[in-house]
Amino acid sequence: MQPVTTSIFELLKIGPGPSSSHTIGPMKAGFDFMRLVRELPEADRKRADGLEIRLFGSLSATGEGHGTPRAILSGMLGSQPDTCGADTLERFLDKDKPFDLDLGVKFLPFAPGQIIKDAVQHDYAHPNTMIFRLKAGDAVLLERIYYSVGGGFLRWDGWEEPERGEPAYPYSTMAELKKHLCGRDIRLHELILANEMAITGATEDEINMGLDHIISVMEQAVETGIQTSGVLPGPIGLQRKAAAMYNRARQEYFQGPGFIKALNAYALAASEENAAGHCVVTAPTCGAAGVIPAIIFMLKRHTGALQTELREGLLAACAIGFLCKHNASISGAEVGCQGEVGVASTMAAAMIAYARGYRFQVTENAAEIALEHHLGLTCDPVGGFVQIPCIERNAMGAVKAFNAYLIASTLDESYQKVDLDKAIRAMAQTGRDMSGKYKETSEAGLALSFTEC
């Protein structure tokens, strides 16, 4: 198997919610397609008189609620996920309002409502498929098929892995990773840092600055969320809960149940910001963007963790996220929510253990315990909105991560019988066997039960 070559900042990306596969990926697709359009011969651009965009699979089934058409159009108008404003998608709430797309030689009007929701079941290479066509009458001037493969990662027909350096310590499984850690005088965060430098060419200072920025965006999402009340956008009319939960925790001086209430509040806060379409960090996805920020907030505010400890813990979390993505998936459309909140909880459990000073065995055990108890978790968002059960599921993922850390750090390491590699294989197999109705289509599970009530 090929070694992991994913960058830290590919796994942890800043962008608008509510879904990395449904907003960040499609925004990138829209931006990329317009780049290709402007590279066409001037004569072709002058002939162009129409644009056809089709959504398939989960993007068709739940894209409206996730904001996919708005994200595509914002990308076509020049927005990029990591630099767009917090309210970027709100410009496109009127789906029938056309916007002028600049072809370089003329403008082409297009509205979000013109995007076609095509077949949910299809034969394309990934459940999250988009087809973009620039047309002149019936003639197709340019076509590209994109795949939003989870976590904001975008692929297309003909896509090739970009050139990058070889990892200093190549690994594709936890077993291989542990061989490096056992056979060399190196710790887990140092190994991940060395690999990032080798793969991307970035310096240690640049990576640390990037990690600090990621941490600050996560903290800001929590800070904003615990101070904001009201109703989230969309027809469900879901009330924000984070501020009320945080105030109750504060009244209890964050002691006993108050501590757990605070941890819940932090996860709810970042997840509610995601549901509002505001900027979050894919960790590893937008749908799971509340779990790791909650843990970071808890470590910093309640245990006095230093910035270096948070960085090191986040690097350990990335090691776990890389393995889950490499050997299974972080896409709800592929494996259900076990690949989103489940992986986020797994990463968070590892982060707590590592930031608290435990070495790799306790860190792995904490990660495995968290993943084991998310296996089989379906992705069934009500109405296609990342609200029910997604927001509370982030809170549950944060609490499970903390509990996994407690179990792993309290009991003897030798008690652990299942290693992380086995749990990841189980997640991949479970995802393959899971009915497609439970993979981000809103056609089954809680999504269906809710509409029947």
TrEMBL record:
Co-factor(s): [4Fe-4S] cluster
Entry EC number(s): 4.3.1.17
Keywords associated with the record: 4Fe-4S, Gluconeogenesis, Iron, Iron-sulfur, Lyase, Metal-binding
Pathway involvement of the protein, from the record: Carbohydrate biosynthesis; gluconeogenesis
Catalysed transformations (reactions): L-serine = pyruvate + NH4(+)
Domain Serine dehydratase beta chain: from-to ranges: 7-156
Gene Ontology MF term list: L-serine ammonia-lyase activity
Enzyme class: lyase
Domain called Serine dehydratase-like alpha subunit: residue spans: 186-447
Extent of the signal sequence: none
InterPro entries tied to this protein: ASB_dom_sf (IPR029009), Fe-S_L-Ser (IPR051318), Fe-S_L-Ser_mono (IPR004644), Ser_deHydtase-like_asu (IPR005130), Ser_deHydtase_bsu (IPR005131)
Similarity annotation: Belongs to the iron-sulfur dependent L-serine dehydratase family.
PANTHER family in UniProt: L-SERINE DEHYDRATASE, L-SERINE DEHYDRATASE 1
Name of the protein this chain belongs to: L-serine dehydratase
The organism of origin for this protein: Pseudodesulfovibrio methanolicus
